[in-house]
User: Fold these one by one.
Assistant:
Number 1:
Amino acid sequence: MNENRPAPPRPSVLGRGSYSEVLRVGEILRKETVGGILLVAAAAVAIIWANSPASDSYFALRDFKVGYEPWHLELSLGAWAADGLLAIFFFLVGLELKREFVAGDLRQLSKSIVPITAAAGGVVVPAVIYTVINLTSPETLRGWAIPTATDIAFAVAVLAIIGSHLPSALRIFLLTLAVVDDLLAISIIALFYSSDIEVSPLLFALIPLAAYTFLAQKYRRFFGTNPLAPWVILLPLGMVVWALVHASGIHATVAGVLLGFAVPVLRSQASGGPGAGPGLAEIFEHRFRPISAGVAVPIFAFFSAGVAVGGWDGLMSALTDPVALGIIVALVAGKPIGIMGITWLLTKVTRASLDKSLKWIDVFGVSLLAGIGFTVSLLVAELSFGPSSDHDDHAKVAILTASVIAALLAAVVLSTRNRYYRVAEAEEKVDANDDGIPDVYQHDQRP
């Protein structure tokens, strides 16, 4: 009888993923942890310096201009950090996104739908909250995108400080959230924060971009295993693309994402056989991630986080600005509402259940952690209101305040689960048959 048949198991969401994905994400987060600590240190130095008796020297350094004006490249050091160094960061975002959707777990719709829609919820809900709070102030509405991004480096630095042993499923979820909303953020920058666009430089940029893409796809055929070839040939082409995009009026970090998308992520065996060596994406990620996490992002944080608060009265004035209120509420409350709300809604719509290795309190803790919106939020604030404007300064104070609040709340929630996380981490390391793959990943595999 059909009535006696057991009901089919409900599908689960936010599972562990493949072991190769776990190893890769673990390596990325270890590098980002170091970068996050450097980022926090650089921001702290900037804030202290900007509010010290020597504050004039900080702002003079930030505003000091270098570069070649005929090429529209005479920029302040702060602008070089935002337009130039952050392009390296977004280049890695492009690489990471392409790798996930071409060769990673996210190429499977069943695994990608939850983190992608959750990231979208974590962008839309904060933007709506900020807009509602600033609805009566057209001057400040332009900052609606400030609270939409998650700073993965800052987030994993918090995890390192509190000693949280997040299970692999949550680490992958957090990284995916951050990478996807970085893509959404750069799309917002390209669409809403580009002005006075000049078509000619943009069209000229297509020429070196096409050459870069062709050579990147065929680099092993042309250059073999020569380790210098990508740097001697591709790096200058990438710099030309960046300069032309910058001259066009589109924010130059967009060039970083485009260049990342152009790099092949699958290793070609067409020449050299199985021992041909790592693919170009692996080479670039290995070389550029330490530069991004350890140099580019901390330097950007140093030049962007410095804001003269003006004592207690100045702090209170900043925090009562609708800009600041919108950012704080959007990051601290909007992010977890958007991320956890969409995740919960998807489980109900699809009749799925949370993976048995997790509880909803775990998703809530990661959603709070995603409210740390530092690097990209600082960039969007400058694009929204202009460097050193009152609203920009108030936005910076709010971003810093919200990030600290989100970090503290996440630390409290995740710390209560640390004992369970340690048990789960130990379970994920058990390899009874000594085949190099922990048993839980073999048991979790589906035919």
Number 2:
Amino acid sequence: MTAAITALPAPGLRDHRDELAALLVDVVAGGSSLGFLAGLDHAGAAAWWDSLLPAVEDGSLALWVSRADDGRLDGTVSWYRESKPNGRHRAELRKLMVHPAARGRGTARALLAEAEAAAARAGVLLLFLDTETGSAAERVYRSAGWTEAGTIPDYATGPDGRLHPTTLYYKRPRGAAG
């Protein structure tokens, strides 16, 4: 069971980078399609988290983490707010990930709910995402009320090296004005 979900500002990202890198390595090794291939090592994962620092610092990327009752980091999610003038009302949900050992306990749903609520508070009128077609994540989004917008064939290479389709989803956060 997830004990706590908290926002992670830039100092927290720096302080917990190695823990976040370990989570990413484990999630990719578990077969999740997050934009990385099998064999992702800790250094590569840490460098990816480091690359997010500027966006977290300038507020365009909001990031949350979940921790199990024992304090172990077991999941994360983020959204990126569009900076172009015609898209400032929307944000892209990114990298919802739950440690393989923590799946099936409601962690993904709790992270998703927190990101959606924060989006509404921030005035985001539309969230969107893409996820591997047929994945467990797709079932989470559907059950959370996200609407399928379409599927793109051969969109990304999965951790296994094969091309996979992706399905696009969108949702209007509850309580968002618009």
Number 3:
Amino acid sequence: MNPIPPLCVSLGDPCGIGPEIVAAAWRAVHDDAKLAFCVIGDASILSTQGIPVTVIAGPGDTGAGFADALPVIDRPLSQPAVTGRPDAAHAPHIIDWIEHGVALCLSGEARALITAPIAKSVLYGAGFRFPGHTEFLAELCRPHGAEIAPTPVMMLAAKDLRVVLATIHTPLKDVAASLSGADLSYLIRITHDALVRDFGIAAPRLAVCGLNPHAGEDGTIGTEEIDIIRPAITSLQNESLSVSGPFPADTLFHDEARAGYDAAVCMYHDQGLIPLKTLDFWGGVNITLGLPIVRTSPDHGTGFGIAGKGQARADSFINALRQASAIAANRSLTGAAA
């Protein structure tokens, strides 16, 4: 039998907390062969984190020595990284590490990609033209000859809560104008399919938040629920999807409410992220839906201000490893791709 391809990690910004949390994750899981992972990055940086490191030629060399040392596909920086001091000179390398990770997943040499945090401001000076990490990954996954890349969906997960966002980093004053029934329907369909394929839920239940207080209260506190959200829900219900709402967001996230759905569809960033981070501030995971590869990441940024100070926690990164492994296993059961 061929060995199961390993997980693959892109190191992210080498000046942030990425090297620390990757090293801490290896310490936590190095005796669990199911979570064996290799890192694409600069091996010399990881060797300063107080763990044994071994340079490997490719993902196929990950498993044999994972219990004894962190396997690294060494693609070194052109100049040293200074902890806590982001440097645009590293941008081409950070981009290369991500590109290589995606290529390994597309080729089947790795079964999932876990991305350590990046800072977009560092990358823009190198010609990076994407709004964020996720959009870049979608472009890298664009099929040969296709005119457009897949449209990914961001899911955040913590404990028993999964949320997806209809708008992400949109200013609050622009959220209402950014909503559309077509986009909302697409988001819900992608989420439904991912819950089946990636999470093994045969009949997913989705709950949809309203935009306004009290979900608009029959149009007296806003009409987006009547004009946009409810018609999209009704259309999807007619397709036999189990979708309900729109619900007032302030009643949707307590313990009893969460038992009634498998994912919540939120209209804007803080509507979903505040309950998720209240439930599990340190352990949330970012999961990208709608791509042909499995991708997860920790639900936090580069942490330049705490890098190298022994304050970074690896909870989210470790959970990202576990989520990626579980999703890849669920996909392999059906041979499904996005």
